[in-house]
Design brief:
434 Repressor (Amino-terminal Domain); mainly alpha
Length: 275
């Protein structure tokens, strides 16, 4: 069995956390370095705090097998590619064929599993109730209301829950989750924010347009476009441009709406070429 230090080092790297980010408010970076290099054994409190930030339990650390986790990680990379390209039929088929449920050890992997499952239930089957169940279950693995260090995935789950609630007509719950996702986005350290979070701006802006609140929607659309460009990403940029075009049409600005409509087509063509 691998040592505690080597296990947390491997999980930290897979979570794309630096030693500074993992050790913050728990121990010094130099202490964490010694722990990871098996030069120091942490006390129980430090162990628990490190595990909590990594989104795993002590039991899972003890059962951790690096080869098996590597296989699961490769599976999730494949699933993530399907997800980003909105190939939900391939995603759900691959999840079923790999028997993923029998191979997952880590809470964060269960969380991603239910995120993908809930998304398929929503986009493929239009089953809002099942989607909410899966998204909430995924979030429950690591999220607590008083938690200050959220992951990108937790923020995406919160946003998607809000989006589904909005389509179900549960507007109070929808706005609560959508607003929360934007709040947590701004709390994230810059080095931890990835391009996939562009979608949370689209989700909230779509809801606001649905509620006939174009001025608020425009702010979020513009923030999302700026963020996508900052990350040099096309992820959900096409959708944001399309939303911007619709908003401008709603407000009688047909000339600018046409500009964004053409941009939507261009981004769609570029994205297709990149697939």
């Amino acid at each position: 069995m691998n040592s505690f230090g080597s296990v947390i080092k491997e999980i930290r790297k897979k979570r794309k956390l630096t030693q500074k980010m993992l050790s913050e408010d728990i121990c010094s970076q130099s202490v964490l370095s010694r722990i990871e290099n098996n030069e120091e054994l942490p006390n129980v409190v430090v162990m628990q705090q490190i595990c909590q930030r990594l989104g795993v339990t002590m039991d899972q650390i003890m059962q951790f097998q690096s080869k098996e986790v590597q296989i699961v990680t490769q599976m999730f990379e494949k699933f993530g590619n399907y997800f980003r390209h909105k190939e939900y039929d391939k995603l759900i088929q691959s999840i079923k064929e790999t028997g993923l449920e029998e191979r997952i050890y880590l809470d964060t992997d269960w969380q991603r599993y239910y995120y993908y499952l809930g998304s398929c239930e929503f986009y493929l089957y239009n089953n809002y109730e099942r989607a909410v169940f899966s998204l909430r279950k995924g979030l429950s693995y690591t999220y607590q209301t008083n938690k200050s260090n959220l992951s990108d995935l937790e923020i995406q789950l919160i946003s998607c829950l809000g989006s589904v609630y909005g389509l179900m007509g549960k507007n109070d719950a929808a706005e609560k989750y959508l607003k929360l996702s934007i709040y947590y986005f701004h709390e994230l350290p810059n080095e931890r924010i990835n391009a996939e979070l562009t979608k949370i701006f689209f989700n909230y802006a779509s809801f606001l347009l649905q509620e006939n609140r174009p001025n608020e929607a425009q702010v979020l659309i513009d923030q999302g476009i700026v963020w996508a460009r900052k990350k040099n990403s096309y992820y959900y940029l096409e959708e944001l441009f399309d939303l911007k075009s619709k908003l401008l049409t709603m407000t009688g600005n047909d000339k600018d709406a046409e500009v964004y409509s053409k941009l939507t087509e261009q981004i769609g063509q570029i994205a297709t070429m990149k697939l």
